[in-house]
Amino acid sequence: MTADREPRALLERVFREEAGRLTASLVRLLGDFDLAEELIAEAVVEALEHWPRDGAPERPASWLLTTARRKGLDRIRREAVYRKKLELIAALPTQPPREGDDRLQLIFTCCHPVLAREAQVALTLRAVAGLTTEEIARAFVVDRDTLAKRIVRAKHKIVSSGVPYRVPAPDELGSRLDEVLTVIYLVFNEGYVATAGEAPIRRELARDAEWLASLLARLLPNEPEPLGLLALIRLHLARWPARLDAGRRFVLLQHQDRSLWDRHAIGEAVALIERAARFRRPGRYQVEAMIAALHCEAPTWEATDWAQILALYTLLTEIDTSPVVALSRAIARRYAEGPAAALADVEALSDHLQGYHLFHATRAALLRDLDQQAEAARADAAALALTRNSGERALLEERLANTRWALHDQA
Amino acid sequence: MKYMLLITQGEWYANGSPEDRDRAMEKVVEWWGKQFGSGKMVGGHQLQSPDTATTVVIERGKHTILDRPLMEAKEAIGGFGILDVADLEEALAIVKTMPQPDGRVEVRPILDRDR
Measuring CA to CA, which residue among A402, A266, A268 is closest to residue A329? Predict the structure, then answer.
């Protein structure tokens, strides 16, 4: 017992780092998601009671595992049907595993493509990041019961339909990793961009995503894309203080007070991009992080290196052929080569993006640049009408997850 | 001729009380045992609940994975069987002895490429 440690702060840190890790190894050892999670959750609850009163233990992770083990044994003893699990729990080690880290298996399982996106998101936050069902429901402004059902169903499906608990083989790692990165970036965007819900909660959600991205980067040290995503998230976060005005309205990138940006954080994120670039395997998150870095390093909006940003967007459209990325590229072109060229690009997307409010908003802005006021007003009206149509918006929101940066900040 | 039996889950199984379901299930299990014993049922299984299903949609050669069953919940497939009998009449006669309280059974001849 040590008096100088802050039990609550320590518990928070330990829970972050160790609970997910312990859960992951218990899932492997027990083959039972619910049981593993519940045991760790119960151990954490017990820690919340004991540590502030008695002081934090010397080795918090061992304490949690021992407690989880005891909880498991207590419970299983009451339920004879779980005889097999009793043996498994009794055979659990008393020391947390030092060698491996099962969290990678856990992440890939939670983000398995047979689960719907919303189930992947909920399960990852629950099982990997250790958020409570309550917290996730609040952050996503979803009814608690709905969210609980979503999680239960996802776990049920994993167990009964035979989703393997493992890190994907090298030949499928790429596509499976994309899935994980998308989930993390969606969580981040939900915290960073979405306007629903209370601000402090959403900031935490953005931080949770940052933590998940850094965990992934640590667990996959030979993959550049997690580093790219981490850099991208940190570049967004570096601008956090400048993005809302006194009235809590969003401030466009163009009008942000750049002295409020966290220069130190920007420098660190750029170092991450450079680390990723050494792998010589560019990917969408690396490219987006580079675009974000160019914005963050520019002393003013006018002095931004638009030619370079346009070149990066061109590269991005080769990686991702979605029309939303092409729209972002057109916006970059506006600043690199002028509104007429950009408008031609935007018009070419009209078949794909008719139902998308930012398509019309972008068009309106470009028409206004070219002094076509009447046509601009019509485009504005179309944008406004669609903004209220939340159904279509939700559909595009996901496709947009990776390019929102450009649109929200530049459009 | 072989026939595929596609059997919907039925209200009794999806939403019945546990007691009623267990009682009906007992008869169902007995029926299947008898069919397998006669040699006419040459294959078949009960399936896990529809919420464990994954559907792969193929459009223009592109595969998309969906986290749901092929059919609406009401029509969800609960199991299948393969009958090897003389003709459709024999197949239908057997299906008519199925003991479950409700549901649907599609009886579909299996295409025999050797014929």
Answer: A402
Q: B48 CB near a chain A CB, below 8 Å? A: yes
Residue B49 domain flag: yes
User: How many independent structural domains does chain B possess?
Assistant: 1
B90 in a structural domain? yes
Q: Which residue of A has its CA nearest to B64?
A: A113
Note if the pTM is more than 0.80: no
For A150, nearest residue in chain B (alpha carbons):
B51
As a three-state string, the secondary structure of chain B is CEEEEEEECCHHHHHCCHHHHHHHHHHHHHHHHHHHHHCCEEEEEECCCHHHCCEEEEECCEEEEECCCCCCHHHCEEEEEEEECCCHHHHHHHHCCCCCCCCCEEEEECCCCCC
Determine the distance from the C-alpha atom of residue B92 to the mean position of all C-alpha atoms in its chain, rounded to a whole number: 14
Partners of residue B54 in chain A, C-beta under 8 Å? 114, 161
**What is the predicted pLDDT for the residue at A271?**
97
Half-sphere exposure of A236 (CA within 13 A, CB side): 27
- Class of A305-411 per CATH? mainly alpha
Q: Is residue A153 within 8 angstroms of chain B, CB to CB?
A: yes
Of A113, A119, A157, the CB nearest to B65: A113
Q: What average pLDDT does the segment A61-83 reach? A: 77
What is the domain extent for residue B86? 2-109
Query: How near does any CA of chain A get to the CA of B49, in Å?
Result: 9
ipTM: 0.70
Average pLDDT along chain B: 92
A116 to B51: CB separation less than 8 angstroms, yes or no? no
Residue B77 in domain: yes
Average pLDDT over residues B54-70: 91
Residue A5's pLDDT band (cuts 50, 70, 90) = low
Sign of the Cα pseudo-torsion (B13, B19, B20, B23, in order): positive
Name the E strands within A214-371.
Answer: none
B65 touches chain A (CB under 8 A): yes
Q: Kindly determine whether residue B54 and residue A119, on different chains, have CB atoms separated by under 8 Å.
A: no
Q: Tell whether B54 is within 8 A of chain A (Cβ).
A: yes
Instruction: Establish if A149 touches chain B: CB-CB under 8 angstroms.
Output: no
The residue in chain B having the minimum alpha-carbon distance to the alpha carbon of residue A152 is: B51
Please, what CATH class does the domain formed by A6-90 belong to?
A: mainly alpha
